Amino acid sequence: MTRWTPTQVAGLAPDASSLTAARRLARPGPWSDTGSTETLLWGKCQGSGKTPYQVSIDLTGPAFRCSCPSRKLPCKHGLALLLLWVDGSGGVAESAEAAGFAQEWAAERSARGGARAAGDAARQTRTPDPAAAAKRLEERLALMDGGMDDFARWLTDLARSGTASARQQSYVWWDGAAARLVDAHLPGLADDVRSVGGAVSGRPDWAERLLLAIGRWWTATRAWAARESLDEGQMGDLRAYLGWSTSTDSVRRADAVTDRWVVLGAHRSDDGRLQQQRTWLLGSATGETVQVLDFAAGGQVLPVARVVGSSLEATVARYPGAAVRRALFVDEPAVADESVRMPSGVALEDARSAAARTWGLNPWARRVPVVLADVRVGVDRVVDAEGARVSLTEDADVWTLLALTGGRPARVFGELEESRLRPLTVVLDDEVVGL
Amino acid sequence: MSEVDTWWRDVGNAALVGTARRPVPPLPDLGRAGVRDRPPGAPREEALLDAAALGGAAIRAGRRLDHAEPPDAAPDDGRPVAPRRAVQLLELVITQPPAGAQQRTALLVHWLQAADTAGCRVPPVLLPTLLELASGARELRRPTAAVLGERGRWLAELREDWSWVTEAAAGAEARTGSRTEGIVPTADEWARLPSTDRVAVLAGVRAHDPAAGRELVLSTWTTDAARDRRAHLDVLRIRLGPGDEALLERGLDDRAGTVREVAAELLDSLPGSARAARMAERLRPLVRRTGLLGRGVEVTLPDEPDPAGARDGLGRPPPSRSARGWWLEQICAGAPLAIWSELTGVDPSATVKRLTEAHAPDALSGIRRAVRARRDPDWAAALLDRGWDASLVPALPRETRERVVLTRVDATTDRVHELGAVVGSVDPPWSADFSVALVSRLRASKVGSAMVLATMPHLLAGLHPMALDPLERWIESTGADQTLATNLRNLLQFHSVKRSITEAFR
Q1: Does the ipTM surpass 0.95?
Q2: Residue B486 clears pLDDT 60, i.e. is over it
Q3: 250-279 in A: which are within 8 Å (CB) of B?
Q4: d(Cα A11, Cα B89) in Å, to the nearest integer?
Q5: Which of A62, A151, A273, A276 is 20 to 30 A from B37, comparing alpha carbons?
């Protein structure tokens, strides 16, 4: 296995202080019994105690185990061992067979994978009280119905008095509408109202944005009113937009598909309150692109990012939805024996019409994944071989992209969002680089 | 404007003022979407909301792409990317500086210069990070500009806060050429170089071909500003020789006092010059042997100099200095040292002794300056025998120099604050013997921790790789002294990374 780069390791750190601590440890001094195979990396680190900590790392996951008491994942010992390994100056030698403790852990891990499958099966057989569940559902639907009616009236009032007067309203007015939506179990819609309300006063294009938002909200109220006629996929997308969560158990049970997936790209964001990680996967047999979402709030830590461009053998379960479906891993994915190549990509016009079809199926899809062939990157845009252009999002890492491509045609994976592109991955001479 | 565009604009206007004041335009034909207008009689508000929903969906899905010219591409790169191992080291230095954050810049500069010498460039993916770092640290800019390659220079042109690259790159090219291959710029190229780069280019040229360097200085002498004339003259220090005398004499007649000062100072280094002979003539009548056996010496202070003397540097003294004492010092600094044995009849060591006994501090200061400027080992040894002076150490041959400094280190252990200057008087890189001996002395000392701290900058710059093993053994036995252990570890890391960088480019 080719050793990683220090930047990749730094990307795994749960916070800055862990990384700093790990850097202090990333020297041969405190380490003993280190070694690595194709998939495992292990070593013992002498800490303040008598017995050294045993550190094992599964490079494919990657997954970490350390006998230290730290609750951070990965802990500083795991990061330090990776750094030492990456450094390549002989601190960690290649070895044919893993040390005892690392092997045990690897064995436990695969056994646990099996056990979880068994646990899922057990959970399925346990049937909750159907009468109580039906009653809870009825109460929830009644609340949501009331909230939607109220929201439709609010929209009608807004239409009557005009958006110019809505712009005069203080944020409290928007926040009040959002709070009523939260009370009616419609938190996703509430977030959208808050975010549009917050942007209305400051942006020069506020009128157009507000008009489009009103249209989106109205579509949601009409769709909710006609929900009897929606199919399961449409209902799934509407639920996701409104913020009516689907339990992971029911997702796990429902729509699982086993395939070889290539990791197209990933995006991490942190709004101070919530960290989010989006990983896009393309199934080689199904040809479907799904997104795996991970969240972390407060002191929680996001799961370790998948290596962009790598291929995973995995069963994923898809959330109900019509297009741009969310998915979750049913069990821990394994690195595929045979790697799948990144797709060759399409021209911008084709990507745009694919996105249009997607929005036709799911009007609430915020972003559509696209692989673009032969696009040239400029400071604020990409231009394809036919001269069609699309602007880049403000958060795009355009300088790395420019440095890597040098303005020459390259394959780029990204998300189309409100007619802008957020580039996430670039493919150069078959080398896949995550941005 | 298409029918849909007109309609959408009207919808926008209706939404702005509200349906209470404006009617909603009827839906246009949305083609295959197959949407039909609501039957008349529906509330206006709902018609507007329907229009916003449908129009929004239509515009989102149906908006045509703009077309534009593709952006300009970067030119091809001639230089190869730095070797893989070197790139890993660069990433390491950037993301997790070994030897502490303060040493990062020094290691980066080392990496960048090693890459430039090896004719390599930075890999594209690290360009933004490096440009960002160099934008914040001036000492990184020129070495960075030298290894950006075509891709990096192209990238820098696209961003305002990287615009320093253009100028730095032009200078870096000339610098690289003059430093590594002794390429002499033509008079035109020289005239066009920014002032800040001229000094570096000139230094490179001087090191290879002193005469060519002098010609460059002469080519712009009459048009250069005083500040530049001074700076250029100052560079002639590198491989100064009798051939430079004519230009220096010209400097003595310069309009600017700062230029005259440097010219006189440089002429102090040329004991065979006409000015040195003139100074000798001024010194001769001032020194007299005394005592029956002529074993004493008396030095009288000179009188007001004539215009020729003033031209040679006997001008206004520095503040709070007696004028006549200052002139004596200037005369002694300029005269050939050989004249002293003629005047006193004894060797340098005895001369120093007699001058000390005669309380002639101005004469001795002048001699010290002459010794420093001419790097005269005999006189330096003679002076050092009678008292420590770090500035005289460089005049000794390297072996003697290192021995003298080690002796001095032993004598200085109780004055740790002076130790930095003592050790710093041996210019880096140090010999293996000296480095090992110094480390063992520091380790043996009771105040080793404070000594390491005091000499850290010099240890970072000078230590020979052979001293790294003893250093490592020392770290293992530092015990409870965490500060010492950290400092030593940083030192060790710094040197081993530096060595790895050098090796990675072989």
Answers
A1: no
A2: yes
A3: none
A4: 18
A5: A151
